[in-house]
Structure formats: C-alpha cells, structure tokens
C-alpha cells in the first residue's frame, strides 16, 4: 500500500473531486477491442477514456498520452503515440473517432510486449525523468497470459506503473480468471479496478487520485493534530501471512503521521 498517498490525504487541507492532475505524466492506454466488449459497451469505454484524459493537462511540456487498441493480431490498432498529441482537444478528437475493431481474441500478451519494447522508449516519445503509467483495460481473459505476465514484470522493473481495469460480468467475481490475471499484471492490488461497464466513470477520480499523488511533490506533515482510528479486518479471509503484511503496513503508516 502507498503510505505516502494516505499521508497526503490526511495532510491535505481540501479533500474531494480532483479537477486536474498537476505535473507531467507519460500515460499510455491499452484498450481491449475484442468481441467480448461489444459495440454498446465500447461506446461507454470511449466516454470513460475521454473523461479520464480530460483530467490531465495535455501539452508538449505537460502530460503526454498514447493509446493502442488490441485484440487479435490483425485487429491491433496503434491509435496515437505518446509524442503525437499535444492538447486535450486533439486527444478528445482521436478517442471520438476511434473505431471498434471487434477482434476475435484477447491477445493481452502481444499488446504488453509491444508496449514494453516499443512504447516506453525515447524514440516513441517517452521522456526521461517523467512518470510512466500504463492503464490496461480489458473484459476478457488473455489468450497469451504467460507472455503478458513476463512483459508486465519487465515493465515493473523499469518503474512503469501498471494500473489494470477489469470490466464486465466476470469483473466482480474474485475467483474469475480475468480478475486473477489483472491482479497479477498490476503494480500492486491498489492498482486493480473491477467494474461493470456502467460504473467506469465512477472510478475516474480514484485513478486520478493515485496519479495526482505520484506527480505532485511529497507532502510534509509538520504541524496539526489528527485523531486517527484504524479499523482492521482480522477475519479468516485475511490469512496469517497476509496479516503480517498488514501489520507492517500499519507500522509504516503510523510512523508517517
């Protein structure tokens, strides 16, 4: 868990909806365009992407955004590169005109291979010293999960933050293969979202909240008092090994307040 993120929430004088992310991010969107999405739901995905990107200040010296739609090999579509769009208006227009490919497979591994090898590098617009964030959105189990996991791990070692979003009927089933895959591919469990398509817009501010913490200067709690009460689940569902991790988290959290 991100202790400094929680610390910032406690120290912040204003809590609530975030209007705009400050600072620069190299943000790449990896979007499932397979048949499992369906055309009506893909329209909801586009609305979600439009709202999400509107929260960033997209400019040459601010946030850069790229997008790739993936499914089967012949339906992969590199919509726009990180260094191609330099305004919110351009990104909004590109998303609006993005066509649903409706491919026959969900080749998440192929997509992550492309991102790892070709997207987050200088030639294709990645900037040194700028936070790299990948958001993977899918509604289907990967046909090539072993490849997906390999390249996700390689990106994590390069400090690329991976946020995964599982959508559709399997997303709310904790035992579903889709959910297991998204949890394995993400940077950590705090970066995993499981939603129905109708709930996509509800998670925009949660996504931005994480990224706002990452691109903003660290908050120093130098004064002020907090009455902080910790309510911790101690049921069997936690398990003993995980409870040890919870205790370490609580120790680190309280050391920051």
Automatic annotation (TrEMBL):
InterPro entries: ECM_Assembly_Org, VWF_A, vWFA_dom_sf. Transmembrane segments: none annotated. SMART domains: VWA. It comes from the Eukaryota. PANTHER family: COLLAGEN ALPHA, PH DOMAIN-CONTAINING PROTEIN. This is Uncharacterized protein. The lineage of its organism: Eukaryota, Metazoa, Cnidaria, Anthozoa, Octocorallia.
């Amino acid at each position: 868990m991100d202790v400094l993120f929680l610390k910032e929430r406690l120290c912040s004088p204003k809590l609530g909806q975030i209007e705009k992310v400050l600072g620069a991010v190299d943000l790449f969107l990896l979007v499932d365009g397979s048949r499992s999405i369906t055309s009506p739901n893909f329209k909801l995905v586009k609305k979600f992407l439009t709202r999400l990107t509107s929260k960033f200040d997209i400019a040459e010296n601010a946030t850069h955004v790229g997008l790739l739609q993936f499914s089967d090999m012949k339906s992969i579509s590199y919509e726009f590169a990180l260094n191609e769009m330099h305004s919110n208006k351009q990104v909004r227009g590109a998303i609006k005109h993005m066509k649903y490919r409706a491919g026959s497979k969900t080749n998440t591994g192929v997509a992550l291979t492309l991102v790892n090898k070709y997207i987050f590098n200088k030639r294709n617009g990645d900037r040194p010293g700028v936070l790299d964030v990948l958001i993977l959105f899918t509604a289907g189990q990967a046909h090539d999960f072993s490849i997906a996991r390999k390249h996700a791990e390689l990106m994590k070692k390069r400090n690329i933050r991976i946020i995964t979003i599982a959508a559709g009927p399997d997303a709310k089933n904790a035992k579903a293969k889709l959910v297991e895959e998204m949890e394995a591919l993400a940077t950590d469990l705090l970066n995993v979202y499981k939603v129905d398509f109708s709930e996509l817009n509800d998670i925009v501010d949660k996504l931005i909240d994480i990224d706002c913490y990452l691109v903003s200067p660290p908050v120093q709690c130098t004064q002020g008092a907090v009455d902080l009460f910790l309510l911790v689940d101690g049921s069997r569902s936690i398990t003993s090994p995980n409870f040890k991790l919870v205790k370490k988290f609580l120790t680190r959290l309280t050391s920051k307040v």
